[in-house]
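Troubleshooting log. The previous run stalled partway through. Resubmitting the same two chains, unchanged.
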Amino acid sequence: MELWRLPGHRLRELLGRGEVSALEIAQNHLERLEAKEPQISAFLHVNRDGALMQAGVIDDRIRQLRQAGEDVDAALPPLAGVPVAIKDNMCTEGVPTTAASKILRDYVPPYDATVVRRLREAGAVMMGKANCDEFAMGSSTENSGYFPTKNPWDPTRVPGGSSGGSAAAVAAGEAAASLGSDTGGSIRLPASLCGVVGVKPTYGRVSRYGLIAFGSSLDQIGPFTRDVEDAALMMNAISGHDPMDSTSADVPAPDFTEALSAGVSGLRIGVPREYFGPGTEPGVDKAVRDAIALLERLGARVGECSLPHTSYALDVYYIIAPAEASANLARYDGVRYGPRAAGAVTVGEMYARTRAAGFGPEVRRRIIIGTYVLSAGYYDAFYLKAQKVRTLVKRDFDKVFEEFDLLATPVSPTVAFPLGSKVADPLSMYLSDVCTIPINLAGVPAVSVPCGMVDGLPVGLQLIGRSLDEATLLRAAYTYEQYSGNGGQVAE
Amino acid sequence: MVAGNPWLAARTWYNAIQKGGPFMPITRKDIDHVAKLALLDLSDAEKEKMVEQVGEIVGHFSRLSELDTKDVPPTSHTLPSVHNVLRPDIPGRTLPQDKALREAPDALKGYFKVPRVVEE
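Second attempt completed without errors. Output:
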């Protein structure tokens, strides 16, 4: 039986009914993983022994429950036996974590990120650590310090980034679900280009404790899955207040599975005109407009709207994100973890050589930009100005959400592009994120949901919601998925 | 209509850069200074490339001055409310010393060891 084709909620169902064991699920996915990895390279580290051990523990528990005459299905946690992949910028105790950077080569964290701990507690089985752009800086996973990941739908193309390994692993059936992080689109873009569901929750909804920081006012962790029901289950597992993250929102998280099937009747969906332009590929434009038309036929009230400061978001982002990154990456100095450059006589030399040898070209570039915009004489002109324009971008969203419950846009203006086609030109790479960046600046939640294929390559529909209203987002995404028949696909 | 369209604005940015403008007059001296602040030991060739690339990228930022932000407060976070987050002052277990030092490239007698800090 090809268990790897099934979504997480189906695997959990079969496990609860005793039709499969957790070990069978794990082994089946490991076989699939080993068959696909030579082609896809989604993983930096495969947690083979750890996964089999976790699965064995679940099966032991099931045997005990059965002997005690208890209801196995009711007693098992919600993601019991579900194979998941974790982006390599999240700390996993005893399992290597590098953020795809040479500066953390061989680093083994002494603790789990809160999201990792919560997934373990929910019974998920960790298949390994997923490749990404170094420190999550990039849009194609080609900035990984180790190797690029390939798109499972066409291995000559990129999976998107920065969470490309997490998206590719789920699209290829190497894991049923995964975690990524999204600073300017790093969950939604690869979800769109790999044809899976990707959720960027509201800033503060999911704890960032143990996430290797990039842009601390923008970073947010979220799930990749092959259908929306699994996305809701993953959101249930990882959401909620965490005393270990001072920016964690102290509000209760709802059960995201509960409202999924409520439909979209009467829901007001805005279509911001700035997100559809001549730069959007015609096939992408059509797929997204068809998806919006289907939501309208299902009862949503669709209207055009405007987010007038959208065009400034890219500038604001490329000031704020590198500024925050340059501060966050100051901690990599060869003292407490990671390799140290040899031969330095003074501590100053040791810092500068360790950092130059450990950071890749894109990370070095962003550290320089970030340090520049924060330096004396430029702080007001760049950083403070960007923070003020960020307010205007955020106000645009506040205003349209007075009139609409959701916004619908493309995720990416194009389908997956060929490997190597943008590597030499960092600016053209930055353009991949024009439709996703404003959402991080505003802190609101968004989801990428598959909405068809163009020439064999997936297209994603972006739905954007009000702050802390992921429930409405997931409900609309679920309704669309049920009626479009686009959910649950695996790349052969 | 460039103003409202992010893709077109980005294209315009890109095209302008391809044509050689707009540039900020970023000099080699600026990059030397910033690299020093960032504690990055960059090669000469990379610094020369940075003069060009960072100049291009930063040059585009100047279009933010089109917007009047005189009465606009800055946004540093998007949380609905911010207050000090303190944990209760109760003794608890922290990361043990040997575990905290395990990943250090060099350690001695319970300390992180580094090259000489004070010049002779």
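Takeaways: Chain A has a mean pLDDT of 96. DSSP finds 16 helices and eleven strands in chain A.
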